[in-house]
Amino acid sequence: MIDQFPIGSTLSQTLPPIGADRAENFRQATRSDHSPGFIPALPTLFRQAEFQWLDKLKVDWHKLLHAEQAYEYYAPLPLDQPILIESRLANVRVRKSAASSMTFVEIETHISAAGTVAVAALTNFVVREGTT
Amino acid sequence: MTYVVGEAIPATLKGEITREQLRAYADASGDINPIHLNEKFAKEAGFPSVIAHGMLSAAFLGDYILEHFPENTFRLEKFKVRFKKITLPGDLITCVGKIKSIDKERSIIATIATTNQKGEETTSGEATLSTIN
């Protein structure tokens, strides 16, 4: 990983409309019996800006663990509109011992459509280095 | 539908995790991290085999909430999960939950979890729901 963390910086990305077909594929892959109109745990494609952060931080994906994910829902997320994703590097903490280190990466994401924030997400990753 | 604090939400068995399901989930979700798909990569990362996407368990729990708190009666406001243990192909996943609190505005907080066939919690979390009048 890099040594200096640009905490507070934001990366953004615009996704094309998700579309009913892709939502249906997601419903089937998660063995859901419900209509794909509302998806509480959003598909990973909504998290591409988070992954840009991991690349910027030069995280080795072998050492990466997804620790926690939280959502707050403010409005329906339409399937037929482009989606704006803005991910902010909220915090990075490094905990070191003699043999290993663990880096805790916290990313806040706002997911919007048609100028309205629909979902706020908070993601926590852990990067394990050494013998942890 | 009336709930009482402390009441268990009926469990839902989600079935056995398969490699085919991990591939289907990767394709549908866009999560192509090789740790979920490539045995060699997963073993290099220190796992016994490929591991299931944490967000697949989160999706199971989201679906579990919608199953017991239907959208025509409840509005999901917050949903939070913590990934506690890895899930491997062959694991049998069950969703469980309990009513943690109900306030005077009829807002419900439910604790939720996925468990494996050993009864271990693999994912735990909370969902906050409001009642639609």
List keywords for this structure.
heterodimer, A: 132 residues, mainly beta, Thiol Ester Dehydrase, Chain A, 5-stranded antiparallel β-sheet, 2 helices, elongated, B: 133 residues, alpha+beta, 24% helix
Description:
The complex is a heterodimer of chains A (132) and B (133). Chain A has a single domain, classed as Thiol Ester Dehydrase, Chain A (Roll). Helices cover 14% and strands 45% of the residues of chain A. Chain A has helices at 20-29, 48-56; strands at 10-15, 64-73, 83-96, 100-113, 116-130. Chain A is elongated and about 50 Å long. Chain A starts with 9 loop residues before the first strand and ends with a strand. Chain B has 133 residues and is α+β, with helices and mostly antiparallel strands. Chain B has helices at 19-29, 39-44, 54-68, and strands at residues 8-16, 74-83, 92-102, 108-115, 121-131. In chain B, strand 3 and strand 4 form a beta hairpin. Chain B is elongated, with a radius of gyration of 16 Å. The model of chain B has no long low-confidence stretch (mean pLDDT 94).
In short:
The complex is a heterodimer of chains A (about 130) and B (about 130). Chain A has about 130 residues and is mainly β.
Mean pLDDT of chain A: 90
Q: Please tell me the total number of domains of chain A.
A: 1
**For the report, how would you describe the main beta sheet of chain B?**
5 strands, antiparallel
Helix content of chain A: 10-25%
H-E string of chain B: EHHHEEEE
Q: Kindly report the CATH topology of the domain at 8-17 and 53-131 in chain B.
A: Thiol Ester Dehydrase, Chain A
The major β-sheet of chain A equals: 5 strands, antiparallel
